[in-house]
Write a structure and sequence with these properties.
With about 100 residues, the protein is an alpha+beta fold. The chain has one domain (about 15-95). The protein contains three helices and five strands; from the N terminus they run αβββαβαβ. The longest helix is centred in the N-terminal third of the chain and has 12 residues, at about 1-15. The protein is elongated.
Length: about 100
């Protein structure tokens, strides 16, 4: 029983993150796209937030896109039984 509780606790504290880089030097991060919540449904199969227009967010081009699911957003996913899947998204523009 203790082993199951320990495994369950470790699974709940985990987080998921991914960073995509295109090789350009990293510049400014728009404040409105710094750890913005991106919403999805049913294990993330359907998007609620829709795609981001990177040409409007970063007119000089993008350098890095970082997505992660930290504990608060993971807790929301757990409590909704993965029906609602929020993730944090950070978009970093390319340096001039």
């Amino acid at each position: 029983m203790k082993r199951i509780v320990l495994i369950f606790a470790l699974v709940l504290t985990g987080c998921w993150r991914m960073t995509v880089r295109n090789g350009r030097p990293v510049g400014a991060t728009p404040i409105e796209y710094d750890n913005k919540w991106h919403s999805g449904l049913i294990y993330g199969l359907a998007e609620l937030s829709g795609p981001y227009d990177l040409s409007k967010i970063c007119p000089q081009g993008w350098a890095e896109i970082h997505t992660e699911t930290p504990f608060p957003q993971g807790l929301v996913q757990f409590l909704t039984l993965q029906l609602y899947n929020p993730q944090g998204v950070t978009i970093r523009c390319a340096a001039r």
